[in-house]
Amino acid sequence: MGGTDGDHKKTPLLTSSSGSGSGSGFHPEESPIKRTGNMWTAVAHIITGVIGSGVLSLAWSLAQLGWIAGPVSMLLFAIVILISTFLLSDSYRSPDPEYGPARNRSYLEAVHINLGSRNAWVCGMVVMRAIQRSNCYHREGHDAACKYGDDSFMLIFGAIQIVTSQIPNFHNIEWLSVLAAIMSLCYSFIGFGLGLAKTIGNGKIKGSIEGISASTSAAKFWLISQALGDIAFAYPFSLISIEIQDTLKSPPPESETMKAASTLAITITTLFYLLCGGFGYAAFGDDTPGNLLTGFGFYEPYWLVDLANACVVVHLVGGYQIFTQPLFGIVDRWSSQKFPNSGFINKDYTFKLPLLPAFKVNLFRLCFRTAYVGSTTGIAMIFPYFNQVLGVIGAMNFWPLAIYFPVNMYFVQRKIGAWTRPWILLQIFTFVCLAITIFAFIGSVEGLLTAKLT
Fold first, then answer.
1. How confident is the model over 226-250, as a mean pLDDT?
2. What Å distances lie between residue 252 and 38, 241, 243, 256, 329, CA to CA?
3. What does each C-alpha distance from 254 to 78, 257, 409, 414 come to in angstroms?
4. What are phi and psi of 223, to 5 degrees?
5. Using CA atoms, how far apart are residues 72 and 67, in angstroms rounded to an integer?
6. Residue 4: which pLDDT band, with cuts at 50, 70 and 90?
7. pTM of the full predicted structure?
């Protein structure tokens, strides 16, 4: 086991290397990370993070709003998220957004550097809930109760995630994001195709301008509220935006590549949302199910529906990692800074097995990430409605993560003074988004209470 660097005849089964985790604050001395990401890998990351199985439930949202308000709402929220991402992309480097020497490698670091420790603490609390909500929505859809009834499925899913969670960091999951993005596009295409085929079979386009009618005006009000919430929460990827940007190589500046990737990814996402939602509503009209595949939407051809659901499962593996790797990265960096001389935390062991490429194992990562995945899987099995509550609480995460923090970090980065034209416009933007978030949040609470009491 004791080979040297110059020994090319024998490869040791197990070697170790210590990380350079020294330093303090949010900008320790960086270990040499080779950033190889480009616009296309960023697009794959974004699509994997944004398009969850909830794309199949947007037909229900469109049905509540009708043929005019539904598509317009999707386009408006796409523009909102694009503006938010543009603002956030300028917060990756400090103090200059393009050439600043300091990198903010996570959303939390960017908030800490630009807005101070108090805002970072609040942001950290919101981030933890957002991770749970995002994982829930990826599994169940954006209007789901997020409850679990099949313990065996949860155990299998947890076991797979324990293995994939050992991937060291965000820089090493490009292949998983590409695979997951392909899967998400596959089941989205299938959902769109099934809706188109049924619409053609019906011989007419169902639905109406005003959407599904309700028994009372109050009931219609709450349905609209829930539908807007589902659409709004189907877009944001602010939580992982800076982590994605940290994988990009430069030149050109990372912010430039990120803006181009975000524009392309949001355009593709919106197109699929409109196609799946639109043709789902056109096919079923007032009977549009909550999920085109797992509701009472499509049963035949069964093999195609099964294929779509299999694609959903594969995508969930990548979607889970996209949203948990940022949390793992924060814990890894904090631990390395707190205990720079700990071999348990900073030492990597390289395994080389016959016929397989070498892979690294870190004991701290192995223990913490296994415990994290195991605990979240256990909680989901023991408390079936745990994520249902988190889903409602998470509705309020949209505004702080996607709007408030990006706007205020942009003010700091660009040194925008109060009552200037950009300041006024962005404050109006912030207030309007807050009003919509509160409206959607109230509707989500009402929907939860109604579901539990009936």
1. 82
2. 10, 18, 17, 7, 25
3. 22, 5, 17, 17
4. -65, -40
5. 9
6. very low
7. 0.74
> pLDDT, tens digit, for every residue of 215-236?
888 888 888 888 887 787 777 7
State the pairing for strand pair 14-18/347-351.
Answer: antiparallel
State residue 349 phi and psi, 5-degree precision: -110, 125
Strand 93-94, strand 102-103: pairing: antiparallel
